[in-house]
Amino acid sequence: MADEIQELSASAAAAAIADGGLARAELFEHYRARAAGDELNAFTWVAEQPPAPVEGPLSGVPVAVKDLFCTEGIPSQAGSKILAGYCPPYTATAVANLEAAGAPVLGKTNQDEFAMGSSNENSAFGPVLNPWDHSRVPGGSSGGSAAAVAAGLAPWALGTDTGGSIRQPAALCGIVGLKPTYGAVSRYGMIAFASSLDSAGPLTRDVADAALFYRHLVGRDSADATSVAFPEAIEIPTGERLDGITLAVPTGLVDGEGIEAGVRESFEASLETARSLGATIVGCEIPSARYALSAYYVIAPAEASSNLARFDGVRYGLRVEEGRLDEMYTETRHDGFGAEVKRRILIGTYALSSGYYDAYYGRAQRVRTVVARELGAIFESADFIVTPTSPTVAFGLGDRTADPLSMYLSDLFTIPMSLAGTPAISIPSGLSEGLPVGLQICGPAFSENRILGAAHALEQAIGFDGSPARGGAS
Amino acid sequence: MIDRDELLHVARLARLALHEDELDATAAELSSILEHVAVIEELDLEGVEPTAHIGDVSDSLRADTARPSLPRDVALAPAPAVRDDGFLVPSPQGE
Amino acid sequence: MAGVELEPVIGLEIHVQLRTATKMFCSCALGFGEPPNTRTCPVCLGLPGALPVANAEAIHYGLMIGMALESELAPVSTFHRKNYFYPDLPKGYQISQFDLPLCSGGKLGAVKIHRVHLEEDAAKLNHAGASGRIQGADSSVVDFNRGGTPLAEIVTEPEIRSAEQAGEWLRLLRTTLRTLGVSDVNMEEGSLRCDANISLRPVGTDQLGTKTELKNMNSFRFIERGIRAEVERQRALIEAGESVTQETLHFDPKTESITSLRSKEEAHDYRYFPEPDLPPVVITETMLDRAASALPELPAAREQRYVEQLGLSPETARLFAWRAELADYFDAVCAADTSLEPQLCANWVTELQGRLGEQEAEDSKVSADALAQLAALVASSAINQGGAKQVLDELVANGGHPAGIVEAEGLEAVGGAEELAPIVAAALEANPDLTERLRGGDMKPIGVIIGEVMKQTRGRADGKEVTALVRQQLGLS
Ligand SMILES: [Zn+2]
Predict the structure, then answer these.
(1) For B78, nearest residue in chain C (alpha carbons)
(2) What predicted TM-score, i.e. pTM, was given to this entire model?
(3) SS3 state at A250
(4) Which superfamily is assigned to A2-240+457-470 in CATH?
(5) pLDDT digits over C267-276, tens only?
C-alpha cells in the first residue's frame, strides 16, 4: 500500500480520497513519516500530527511549505539564524488559501537564507542534498521544496521565485515548477526578499498537479496591495498537441557560452518533440538579456537591503546584547545574517545610496522597462519563449560557493521573466549524464492556462519519469 | 571599485558590523560584483522610463475599517527583551 | 555683517495626525492613550512578511487638505521608503512620499505652501532608566500604539518673517484643519507638531543664510518664543562675526535656551526609493468629487463673506473666521434672530468673548439664543448699553434669559419723551451755569447733564435720547 500511495500524483491522491479509496489520515501519515525520515535536509520542521481536516477540493493532500512563508505558531525561519525558532502570530495568505482548499501543512522546507541563492547552500540550517546525487546541490532558493517533491517526501510543495528560485531547483531536481504572473498570488506573509519581483508558486511532480495547486493559490488579497484577481479560472490541462503554437527561441541567449552541451542537447530534443506535436519554432532575440542579469543583481539587493532592515533585534529574532543601541544593531545583524545576505545588503545599500542611485538603481529600473518591452514584442508574434531553465545540470556542493558571480549565472535564463513579471514554467526535458535538465516555457502576463496546456502536451510527449530512484527512465 | 572607507560607510548605513578580518575580502567581492553589474552603463537608455511596479493595480486602497489588533502578549512573545509591557531596547544616544 | 539690517527667513513643517478610524497602512484602530502595545498587528509591528495597504480615508483627508490650501493635486501619487534605523521605526524605513507628493504648491493666508504629503507616524519611545541587564546602560521601552498613525506633512515656503507671523499663521492653519474635520489638531497631545527652519539674511536681498531646524515645539507660545530666541541667537552670532552652523535644535521653554539636538550629526542618507509594496495611487474624478463636496466653508472664505455680505469690520471678520468656534457661535446668534443687524450681534459676541477669556463661547452659560435676545432688547431700546452689559454679566455668571433678568433687576430703559422730559428739565434747572453754556453752543457740559439723568434713572436712560431732549428743550437745532 505504501508503494501505491507513493506512486499517486497529488491530483490522483486527491481523487482517491474524494472517492473514499484512500483515507486522509493514511496519506498524511505516509508523507509525514517520509518527511520525518528525510536524509536530504529538505525539511526544517515536520508536523507531528495532521491538523484538523478541512473539507475542500485538495481533499487532505498534504503540502510542504517553503520556510519563507509565515505559518502561525510554526517555526518560520527563512533559512536564517536571525529568525531561528521564530513562530509568527499569523499565516501567509498563500498558505491559508491552500489550507482552506483542504491541503494540510506537512512541514516547512529548507531554503537559501531569505531566498538569496541558487544552490540552497546559503541556509543557516545546512545545505539540502539533490536526491539524484547527494554530492550535488538541489538548486535554490526553493531547494528544500524541490528536493522534497523529487524524493517523494511530499506530494507537492509551495515555493517562491524572485529570479528563478522555483524554476531552477525544479529543473535541477527533475520536477515541475511554476513561477506565476507577478501579483497573481498574494505575497502577504511571505517574508520579503525583493518585493517587486517576489512570487509564490507550486513545485509538483507533474503539470496537472501544478495546475490544480495553482488554481487554489491565486486570487486577489486585500492584504497585498500589489495582488490582482486572476482574470480566468485555472484549468487542468489535458491537451497533447501544439498545433498552431509558435515557440520562440532566443538564439543569442541560448547559444551563449556557459551552457553545457548536455543541456543544449536536451533542449534541442525538446524543440524537436515540440515540432513533432505541431509547433512552429522560430528564433528571436532578447538583446537586453545580458543586461537583465546585472539589473536584477542591482534591483533585488536594493529592495532586499530595505526589506531586511526590520531584522534589528528589537521585536523578534536574534539579538546580540552589546549595551549600546548601535552595537546591538550592528552585531545582531553581523551574527544573524549569512555571508550572501550580507553581501546583498551591502550591494543594495550601495546601489541606493546618495550619488549612486541614478547609476545603479535608477538605471536598473530602466533596463527593466527595456526587458519587459522586448519580451512583449516577442509575444506579439510568438505564443511562448522557450529556453533551458538553467545553463547547467545540478552542480557539486561547494563548487560555486567561492565565487558569487558564477552562482548568479545560474539565473541567466530565468531572470528576464522575473524582471518583466511574466509567468514561466520549468518542466523536465530529460537527463544529461544522469541528472535532470529543465525546459522553461514563458508566456505573457496571465497566460498561465496556455503555458500549463503547452507544458502538459510536451510533458506527455517527453515521458520523463520523475523518480530519482529509477533514474528518470521512461 | 569600492574601497575600505566606502565599504565602512555603506556597512554603517546598513547597520551591519564588519570585523577587521572581513573587510578586505568583502571589499574585493563587492567590487567584482559591482564591476559585473556595471555593464548596464553600456546600454542606451535615453528616454526610457524606469519600472518600479509591474502590472496595473487600480483598487489598491483599503477601506478605513478597524479590525482587531493582536493581543499584547502575542505581540510581545517573540521579543528578545520586554519591560513595562513594551519592547526593551538600549536607549539611542544623544536622546 | 555688522551694521547690516537682518531679517528672519522662516519656513514651517507641520505634522498633522489625521483623524481616521485606522492607521495609515493597517487596520489597527488609532490609539488614544490605551495601554502600551495593544494597538498593533503584523503590519505596524513590521513583522516578517507583513505588507502595507494604504488607507483610502487618509488619501481623502489629504485631498481635502490640498483643496483647502489651494494646492495642485497629483493625478498619480506614489509612496517611497525613507530608510533609517531607529527603535521607533519597526520596518527600518518610514513609508512617506518623495517626488510625487499628493499636493504641491498652494497658499494659506499670505503664506505659500511648498507641498503636502502623507506618511506614517513613528512609535513612542519611553525612557526606562538604567537596565538591569547591562551595567550602567540606559534603556528605553517601545510602544507601537502610535506607530503607523496617518500623518499629513505640510511644508511652507520660507516666507514667514517673524515669530508673531508664524504663530498667527499656525492658528489659521489649525482652524482650517479643524474646520475640515481631518485632525484633532491638538498640540499638547501631539496631533499637531511643528518644526521651523530659520535663517537670517540682509534685508532686501534674496540670498539664503545657513538655516537651523528647530524641532517639535508643542504649543503656540513655545513656537513664538522658540523662533524669537533662535532669531536672536543667530543675530548675535552674525553680528559678532561668527557663522551659523546648520544643525537641529531644541528649544527649552523653561530656560528659554536652545540646545543642539544631535551634537555629532551623522550625515543622513535615507536612500529613498519607490515603495514596491504600494502601487501608485491614481486620483480619480470620484475621489476628487468626494473631497470637494466634503469641504466646509474655510476661514478665508468665511472672513470674506462676513465683510462682504454681513458688513462686519475686517478686524472682527478675521477675529471670528480664524477662530472657527467663535465664528460658529456668531453664526448661531445671527440665526437665532434674523431681524438683527449682524454687526450688532458681532458686537455682543465680542463683548461676551472679552468676558470669557480662554473659554469658548459655546461652552459658556450664555446660549446663542440668549445673546440674540439680549441684542434684540438693545436694538429695540428696551434696555440701554449699560443695562445690557449688566444683563450679560448675569448671563455669564448664572445663565438664564435676558428678559427675565431685565425684569428681575429692573433694568428696563426709561424711554419716551413723557417719562424722560421732566427728568431732563429738572437736571437743566439744577445746573443753570451749564445750561447757559449749552445754550451758547458749548456742548461740553452735556456729559454732566446725562450723568445727572442717569443718576436719577439708575442708568436706564439712553444717552442719545437725553441729548436729543436737551437740544429740544433749549431750542438748539
Ligand atoms: Zn497595525
Answers:
(1) C47
(2) 0.90
(3) strand
(4) Amidase signature (AS) domain (3.90.1300.10)
(5) 689 999 999 9
